[in-house]
Structures are given as structure tokens and as C-alpha cells.
Amino acid sequence: MKPWLRYSICILLGLAGGTAYAVHQVRSGDIGRQVVNGPWSANTDNGTKDASMLSRARVALFGLLALPAKEAMYFTARTDSDGKPLDGKCTYTVSGGELDARWWSITLYKGEGWLVKNEAHRWSVGGNAPVRDANGNWAFTVSPQSVDGVWLPTGRAPQFDLTLRTYHPNGALLNDPAKAKLPTIKKGACA
Length: 191
Description:
Blueprint: H1 3-27, E1 34-37, E2 40-43, H2 53-62, E3 72-77, E4 90-96, E5 101-110, E6 114-115, E7 124-126, E8 138-143, E9 151-153, E10 161-169, H3 171-175, E11 184-190
């Protein structure tokens, strides 16, 4: 084999291998400083000047229109409050109290940032949707079938995750997210 052909093959294999490794790094796990709070985790580097190139690439891939950290904090839950993976065939109650933010929302995704197809065309619950009790506590249901009250359909996705967005976070949400009071996710019956 001629040397130029050998070098060309090595260069092409190196480029293909490097590209595959880079894609794997960006798509795998969370990158950056992770904070865990119950079932929720957040990357505190997102939207800051301290974010690594891998963190920036991950936000570019999955965090369309992600805001700077002082404007929004993003928390993701892939498990319920007992640490079990979220299953689209099960019913969950998501509940909490006042969050130290101007506004919040929780959106349901099936892996890699895709919205779950569902007949109700409902993908998110905003901070103004759940009814609050006298103490400011609220709750809504995540389940495969329609229920009374505020409901977020799973579309029977085998696995899903919930993303909590807090806009204009203050206090512990911004300064110490590991200790902030975040919603709980309690598993109910499964179909």
C-alpha cells in the first residue's frame, strides 16, 4: 500500500474516531458543577462565564434558548423522590410550595430534550396553573391518563424526565440550590 493512502486512511479514521468521541462526551451525562437536591439536579455552570466548552456544547444541543444563570435556573428530575426512574405508565404527584423565583414551570420530556407526543397537546405546567392552599402549597398530577385537576400527560413514554425552570431566582435557589426547597415527586399506581 502506498504511503499517501495509508496516511489518508489513518487521518480519516482519526477524524471519525474523534468525532464519535466528541459526540459521546456532549450527549453523555451532565457536565459541569452538578448540584443535587432530592430528585432534582442542576448544572450551576450553565449560563455563566465559568462554563466549560463541553457545558456550552451541551446547552447548545439540549438547552435551546437557555438563559444566563441570574435570569433562570434549570433543574432536571429523572427519578421520583424515592430515587426510582420516572416511568410513563405510572402516576406521579408533583407538589411543592412557594419557590423563591418570579415565575416557574415544569416541562415533561422524553430523553434528549424531546417533548412527549400526547393527544392533550399539553407539555408543561406553569407556576400559575396549580391551585394553592392557604399555605401556598400546590400539586399537580403526571400520568398516562387524564385526571381531574391540573394534569401533565406522559404519553406512556417508557422513561421521561421533568425540567423545572425558575425565572429570576432569588435566595437559596440562586445562591445555594442544593438547600433550596424544591417540589417532591411521589409515585402512585402504575398501569
